[in-house]
Amino acid sequence: MNDNWLKKLDWLLLPMIGVVVVILGWQLVAGKKTHIPQSSLAETRTALIKDFAKGEDLAKGEAVWNTVKPIVESGDLARLKTLPNGEELLATVTPYFEEKRVGLIPALPNVIETWQSSKPYLMEPFAKRGEMDQGILRFTWYSLILVAKGYFLALLIGTPIGFFLGLSKAFTKTFDPIIQVLRPVSPLAWLPLGLVLFLSAGKNASELGALFTIAICAMWPTVLNTAVGVRAVPQDYLNVAKVLKLSRTKTLFKVLIPATLPYMFTGFRLSLGIAWLVIVAAEMLTGRPGVGGFLWQEYNALIYEHIILCIITIGVVGFILDRLMSVVERRFKTA
Asked: Treating both helix axes as pointing N-terminal to C-terminal, what angle do 304-334 and 291-300 enclose, rounded to 10 degrees?
């Protein structure tokens, strides 16, 4: 009974275990802030006792020192804030210490630091404090709108090309070499060309250039998978269409498209993943508001916690898009 219950929940439990393992690994290799005395601990102790005493009896300063000593020796001065008059104690102690990061990868923020720094963007996900200072879901929404436009443009162009490649040997011999040359070109190479092509659009040049880049990079999986699907249609299906004297239009919609649909959806799914990948590069280069633009801004500002936030957001949104496309694909296959 228990085994059956666990098997039903393994789709949830196993990924959660994987997430916990990754977070623990991240925490282990990441750095953390610590404070090292600028002089010996004995000299620091003497100086702090005098500061704590504030010109009064040194016994008072000694008592305060005994309270803060465990925290000071640990190097985690932020814990002083938990004590009475913590802010005052921290201000007194800090000048005697030098801040330093330690760990396997000292510059990498740990889980707690990333959460604390990212909290304003997560707790107010739709806030707009400035053009590049907004909630993470608002940035994501900007990116998704542009992705949707470019993605549908890719499907609109790529699907007919795929059918032409699958149906016509002459068309394949003519254009397949060109497709194979253009397909590996990076979005970082296409974007400058897109900006040049739409230079006359003025303020809209960056958006149109980004749409061009998304469409041309994302359409290739749709083109190739649709072509493979059309070639895989059994000849018997086409013979039946001829016997029934179906027109070309009816043959397309009654025979070819239904038979090719599984292949097409594989292409659509791959194209969506590429479209989401390309938007990040496009926003980084154009400086548009969005997840990619925010990531590039935080990289230039050396705020590594926000870079990690963007990476996680990009990954989670990509996963959700892929799952949604899987659901749509299953609905069409069973329809």
From this structure: 160
